[in-house]
Batch of 3 targets.
Target 1
Amino acid sequence: MIKKCYIILAFTLVGVAASSQSNTSDTTIMPTDNSFLIDTTIDYGELFQDFEAFMDSILSPQSYFLATISLGKSFYNFESKTNSSTTPLQKFTWSPMVGYYHKSGLGINATGYIVDDGVNKNLYQSSISPSFDYLKNKAIAAGISYTRFFTKDSLPFIQHL
């Protein structure tokens, strides 16, 4: 019990010492003329018109098709063929994606995840995502999406880190 009292007393005294410090005033000299902060070469009226046109194009319902591919490095644990150990290796991962979004708000996209294991390229995981976007009211925009992943059972690597 006495040990707990000493610990509480020690933390209380440290807190009192820390709160008793005073802040010194800042000695940085600030310029009184702030005109250098304003960029006079930008036409803000034109910038906001472009931004308004961009927002109108996003919020107006349109049907469109989308296709992308991304490339990145990831670490994988590969099983050794000679013994039961695993070897972590950094490999490139390709992720192609296709999607279609209808002006009614319904959309669907599919993504594949491909890794080169040294022998061939393996599509080790894929996903499909149905979605719905509510864009009828310009005051509110909302959406919901669900993603279902499908993973191959037999892979030359154990797990994605």
Target 2
Amino acid sequence: MNLDHLKNEAQNTSCIDWAERQGWAITKRGNDRFGPCPLCGGTDRFAINISKNVWLCRQCDVGGDVIKLVQHMEGLDYKSALERITGRKAAEPIDPAREAELKAQAEQDRLARERVANRYRQDQIRSARRIMNLARLPKPGGPVEAYLRKRGLDKLADTIAQGRFKILLREIERFERKIPVKNGGKVEWITIDECPVMVGEIIKPNDDLDAVHMTFLDPTTPKGKREKADPNTGNPLPSKIMKGSKKSGAIRLYTPSAPTRLVVGEGIETTLTALQEAYQPNTAYWCGADLGNMAGAAGEDENGKRCNHLPDLNDDEAFVPPAWCKELVLLRDGDSDSKKTDNQLQRCGRRAMALRPGLVAKIANAADGKDFNDMLVEGAE
């Protein structure tokens, strides 16, 4: 049975429209909307990209269009998912004029989503650049140096303080954080925090600064990061956030003059641990911001089946090492889901080898249940 007419009609429904119809808890603003996965839970592991009209669950490691969304969430086959979305049986004919109308409406909706997403993206980029304008090089004895020492990075902190080594991190000595709080029928913005912040510049391949990574600091907590609750919900506020457009970018913590090797970790602390404990000449040490950014979209095998360990080489927003990189070393934390992490790092490495002929990609593993910085701190205790 030819299902093309039903497929075209189903794709007239966007992923976000479907999610909202089901009453799923999804953030209301931005190009990337987040919330708990309807199947596996969590808080923000489920995401919908508005402009591309695709979704992804980081835990399930599954994503795609609205049809795959309904298939995955409701356990339906392809035909049943089409019928579920459209509310029509596959055997029912559709008027050609109606089909053309739906196609035109879908294109209008797509363009509208792209306009909204682009406005939000530009707002976020401007916000990121404003934050960088506030940030300064870390001062000796300042909050970033104190944080590095808290994380067992004393040798690195010493060389930075003495001016013998430079990494691309910045600090804001006091950053005011505000959130909206409902007060009767009004919304008031209240200050919930005034704390120092470590700032990492997320640089795109064209050297544009389009995003920042912020770590909110508090030297009195066990790991040196701010711990505070949202006064609206009582839930913990994130100690780290990113603002801007991070896709394909990286925090270029340290890059020597003529590098040939690149070490990439998911987190700043993991990457700095490798820099301190396993420094090698001609090697750059970059932070990939998060595994999703490093991995990019999953591809398909020769039979058209999605394979989470294979990269989608048409994903032009995934991280790709620069042309000078001949060896890529990916740092694998041992405190996250093993299969998912393996798939994501394999995608990153395979994409790099496919798009940079001659490059060799390797994975360095931390101990089970720990990341590299955990190992450093516990080894020093």
Target 3
Amino acid sequence: MTAIVSDYAATLEGLRRKARLRSLVPQQGVDFTSNDFLALASAPRLKAAIMVAMERGVPAGAGGSRLLRGNHPEHEALEAEAAEFFGVESVLYFGSGYAANSALFSTLPRREDLIVYDALIHASAHEGIAASKAAAVSIDHNDANAFDEAIRNWRRNGGRGRPWIAVESLYSMDGDRAPLAALIDIADRHDGFLVVDEAHATGVFGAGGRGLAAGFEGRENVLALHTCGKALGVSGALLAVPRVLADYLVNRARAFIYSTAPSPLMAAGVREALRMVDDEPERRETLERLVASVGDGLKSRFGIQPSGSQIQPVIIGDNARAVRIAETLQAQGLDIRAIRPPTVPEGTARLRLSITLNVDPEQIARMLDCLAAAMEEHRR
């Protein structure tokens, strides 16, 4: 190895010693890891809709940014239908939730504003916040009073702009919910905005699968992000905002202006996925039963409090032990991954169980048996 890359190799070796080294592995085993909560990714109806779109000439690639030649009728049709679906003025379609969060936080909060964000919010929001000109304050997880007090302190110290409260409605590594009712009240009292990342709630929770913020969307001070690569089974992200903010993003958001537009074919797929969420409530009902079954099993057999959602952490603590347990389960044909810092806080390495319609009750029962055996085998 030459000296020019030796520093990188040393960093990787340090990660290996801490049991934090990552690598890519193929899809294999029973799915207890993906975010394909409603099993739409391989649903025949969704496949058929994409094939029909291909047959009517919808291209796979956009060929340019939305502001050049990349603005396809499928993008505009999706944005119009999504706006109606979520009950908002306008929607912008991005290539990923990461790009949408980056664009939102780096563009909309102004220099005189304050961003107050939950400490466990997604890395993509952190990236956007870091690029923002606004001041930012991290808040202890799900502590509504701390959000309020941070804004009050900012005002007392001369803050003159608007506060932006940033949370996930359902947290991706803990499966718990934000106190949205309290937070919208705080946003209203302080003449601020509430930004809700609905990535893990869209399609699963809320009226008609419209997310946990469904009762607040459409308000002028509420912005919601609905990713399309999880329960919707396709790819991209839908940013639901007042029309004036959508127009502002089109004009000022570098992540929107300077990116090739998302695939028009995927836009057609998202349109069909939204219709499926509307037409097939039985998917949500079945998922709810599976989630309850896992929660009951974890509580009765391990004393683990159920999260109440399709995301269920099993906290291990030690990085190396979490990896050993996960590897044992993978060897038994169960795709369960160890999640380690920095994705989660130090000392909270865990198994992240994701419950989807890609599994059945028998596979859940077997998973719980194997989990019990693996945790006993690797007690230390």
